[in-house]
Amino acid sequence: MNGFLAGVAGGGDFGKGIFLMVVGILFVFAVQVLFYIMIKIACGMNKTRGNT
Asked: How far apart are CA 35 and CA 51, in angstroms?
């Protein structure tokens, strides 16, 4: 993993940009999945209380 990151850091601007774009998209997707799970849990808790 360190070799890969060193290769990206030592690479050109285009490679750095692509790496940053991919990491950013994955991070945004992970946050959306986290919020989706939190909303599903909150809706499930709301139904168990009978406050629908």
From this structure: 21
